[in-house]
Amino acid sequence: MDFAMEIASLIAKAADMEPESIREAIEVPANKEMGDYAFPCFKLAKTVRKAPQMIARELKDKLEKPDFIADIQVVGAYINFFADKTSFVREVMGKVLDKDKDYIKSSMGEGKTIVIDYSSPNIAKPFHVGHLRSTVIGNALYNIYKALGYNCVGVNHLGDWGTQFGKLIVAYKKWGDKETVEREDIKELSRIYVKFHEEAEKDPSLNDEARHWMVKMQEGDSEALELWKWFVDISMKEFNRIYDRLHISFDSYAGESFYNDKMQAVVDELKEKGLLKESEGAQIVDLEEYNMPPCLILRSDGGTLYPTRDIAAALYRKKTYNFYRDIYVTALDQNLHFAQWFKVLELMGYDWAKDELVHVPFGLVSLGDGKLSTRKGHVVLMEDILNAAVEKTSGIIEEKNPDLPNKDEISEQVGIGAVIFNDLYNSRIKNVVFDLERMLSFEGETGPYVQYTHARACSILRKAGVEKPEKDIDCSLISDEASVNICKVLSDLPSKLVDAADKYEPYILTRHIVEICKAFNKFYNENNIMGSEGELKKARLAVVYAVKSAIAQSLALLGIAAPEQM
């Protein structure tokens, strides 16, 4: 039973309306004394032409109270519904225990494909802290959509082409050697790349040399392409080490180089449709009519630019995957870039660009702990952040639970989980601060707090010898406020998942996991679970299992492990 939908049907029958429109307006009151569900009658005032308060009173008199509702009250313009506690608990617990590990899954996205473009680091540059947000937000959205039944395609659009490779080849030939690069891998590539820029300030002719090597790459020169491929392989080895620690993988690594042979067709089509204009030797699409600067398609030397490549990529993805949405998870400062080339695709006659291309922006990252400011080539390495989090977690475990089995594995899970949770806890548009002390606290709304709550639930079940609870529990025994509150937050979980997907906001799920943990810890403190007996103990253990399962499923969607011991 969907309680809100049943209430909507009840109201709809009395008001002679469609239940769906009523369902959209139903709210959950912040104050529990105002009921479990509320319907504001303001929406009906225009059509009924009466004061909302009067509508509420008249509607309430027409309602036939079903068994699952204990009471119906009118407060101002609101009709408040109080669910029968036993009926509510029975309904929610029955659904959670029956579906178990599939509780939050649905088939709403069946038959639709969502492409998610995220992470996308530049080859030959270290994986730094700036890449984290795109990576973990994109991964969470991927998992959320997959749980909702969508076919998901995760794309890591690698920055694996461009003038930087000409510079890197010059740098390698002048200041690098094979043995050092193979030993130091991406650190050495980063060092010589930084050196190139330092030397080019003194000798600008180095830039001409770099352009020459880039032209050779474009023309298929074997030496240039061999070096380029070597640099890519070295970088991917580094990136994959980080992805493995984050337990993140991709379905496609089609980066910038993949679209080299697909861009001329875009340029030709833009010319054919009369959209290209010359401006100071470059080729542009004029967007002044749409209050945007021109979109650059070709440089004055004929070279392509990011918009050209992104348009080619979108056309390729639409043809290959026939996506329902193509989502780009990048920084907020790229808003204009995406708005421009989205509009160009629209002007080319691709109407799907208006609704199916989505830019999901996020805020900046800053460091709240000076200990993390280890800088290599003026960037804070992602590996340094992860290592610091894991090392600090290891110290906490040594202090609080030195005999914990698998300490290293759990330190990794908790440390990295804390970093991810911290990033996903607030709206993505907000800036993220890395403060290890706060992130790794076991109190407050943090990853370790959630993981510890899960471990506590596992510990209770382990002590009780329960792997999976019986489904035939007596729900009338667990109708206390704390138990009912757990059922409320559990019943809201599937809709929170849908809300997170609709708004491209993983934090909606993250915040709700914290609410589940708070409800469980109140339940744990107010009910003597292990000291209970018979049917009461069986029912309470079923609640513990339901919470454990919900937390584990939700953390998995965020890309965070759920340790059973901490």
Question: Can you describe what's shown?
Answer:
The chain has helices spanning 3-15, 19-25, 42-48, 52-62, 85-99, 132-147, 163-175, 178-184, 186-202, 205-218, 222-246, 263-272, 306-321, 335-347, 352-356, 382-400, 407-424, 436-439, 447-464, 481-503, 507-526, 534-558, and strands spanning 37-40, 69-75, 78-83, 113-117, 151-155, 276-279, 282-285, 295-298, 325-331, 357-362, 365-367, 375-376, 379-380, 432-434. With 566 residues, it is of the alpha/beta class. Among the domains are: 3-83, Gyrase A, domain 2 (2-Layer Sandwich), CATH 3.30.1360; 159-249, no CATH class. Strand 4 (113-117), helix 6 (132-147) and strand 5 (151-155) form a beta-alpha-beta unit. The two termini are 37 Å apart.
Describe, in short, the structure shown.
With 566 residues, the protein is α/β, with parallel strands linked by helices. It has 22 helices and 14 strands. Strands 5-4-9-10 form a four-stranded parallel sheet, sandwiched between helices. It has a three-stranded antiparallel sheet with strand order 1-3-2. A three-stranded antiparallel sheet has the order 6-7-8.
